[in-house]
Amino acid sequence: MNGVRRRFFPIGLTMLSSELTSNGHEVRIFDTSFYAQYGTDLDAKWRKFGFYKEIKKEVPLEMKTTDPVLDLENVIREFVPALIGISALSIDFHLSKVVARLIKKISPEVPIILGGILPTVSPGECIQEDCFDMICVGEGEKALVELSKCIESKEDYSNINNLWVKNQGQIKKNLNGSFKTLDSLPVPDWDLFDPQHIWGPLYGQMYRVAPVELSRGCPYRCTYCVNDVLRNVYSESGKYHRRKAPEKAICDMLYLKNKYDIEMFYILDETFMAVAKSEIKTLAEMYKQKINIPFFAQTRPETVTEEKAKIVADMGCKVMSMGIENGNDHIRKAVLNRKVSKEQIISGFKILKKYGIQTSSFNMLGVPGETVDTILETIELNKLCEPDSIGVAYFFPYKGTALREFALKKNMITGDEDPNLSHDVPVLKLPTISQSEIVHYFVNFVELCR
Ligand code: B12
Ligand code: SF4
To answer: Do the domain assignments include residue 303?
Structure first.
């Protein structure tokens, strides 16, 4: 499911399909990514505002011209699935319902499960939709395999951990089970997915990029981020911020590099450098020896030290993205719960630059407390950090987050706003700044930071 046209392979779904196939189940993927009628081409939009560089040698996407409804119907009639899963972020709520209702018309008897961040952060809202028979709250590897086994052997599946299941007019809300360790996950397999996902843009060039996860979770708790929510969702499941053993990480990457002729890795970890120097060093040594191709990643500015930057640069890091988010100390610390000083932020950017790593900054406009002056402070801080590329987004208060609760309490939102809106306009009604002022700074943000 995709509300936004996406380049990279969706790592969560690829993990689930690998887990199912390695447990003897047959899987088919119906991917909405490359249908022109679904999703926004955000890459194009970001190039327009200068967040992405113009691509010098584009690898054009081949959009599907066939009717998605007929295609879905054909897949279902031909494959005859015993279970249909839909994966969705919050932006995909509408589309996921459209597709589920369509499936119900084609094959009313096949159970449908909704998984992903959407039902994880708003399970109550999702389960009440009659097109979904059950939802998966949180990570799905264990639950989906168990569910498929039960369906195959016609056993009762209403008690599986992480699942909320409709059962004779009742909803059975099962607790979340323990995590599957990252080292026991199968090697990702992309053969079932559209090969076009392999191409990703970086600094105006297209590369064969492999997204990989070396860890899950984040040690920080920003008030607008899903990680704050997930930490609560997983309170009974074990240690939330987990890393793969370096041997497993390297083994997965080597497999992908060889099988798919990978030129560049995209390490999806949310705070790649938030680990001890010794851990990065061990990984870097193995990576240089066995993989030795460039990669890009993201971290927080305060996790960057001279020693770690040197190791990471030597390992092959070409670009590191880091959140600045807001240049005003009060907003950053008290509203966003990002307890990092301006000096630390500037230092993180400067150190990486010193070791030849290009930097990219993330910024949000329109958070509670925003004024024209705080936006100017954000611009000023970007100038001091001198990132090689700059990204900016309108703030959207996603369900489950602390900042959404705050915005609701202060009547800055009604609660019914569509998250897809935030691709185009500021969503919060703020007493401190007008929406047209925020739009003005959004459109001109990159130019003003230069
Ligand atoms: C990496 C990443 C990206 C990458 C994706 C690269 C890739 N190849 O996947 C890029 C940069 C492209 C990206 C883009 C966007 N992202 Co993003 N992204 C992430 C990030 C940091 C990690 C995602 C990930 O891979 N997780 C690891 C995998 C294993 O987890 P998973 O996908 O959730 O899947 C597991 C479970 O959810 C479940 N599951 C998933 N699907 C299904 C289906 C079934 C049937 C079942 C049973 C279970 C199940 O099982 C999976 C395995 O355990 C998350 C933060 C996070 N912690 O999730 C944000 C996050 C998902 N992104 C977010 C957003 C908003 C976006 C954008 C909309 C941003 C924008 N404005 O453009 C776009 C949307 C693109 C799109 N349509 O997918 C938000 C979503 C918030 C929300 N409530 O929906 C998040 C949560 C960050 C945040 N702000 O809090 N993103
Ligand atoms: S540091 Fe990034 S990933 Fe971690 S909680 Fe904050 S916004 Fe989320």
So the answer is: yes
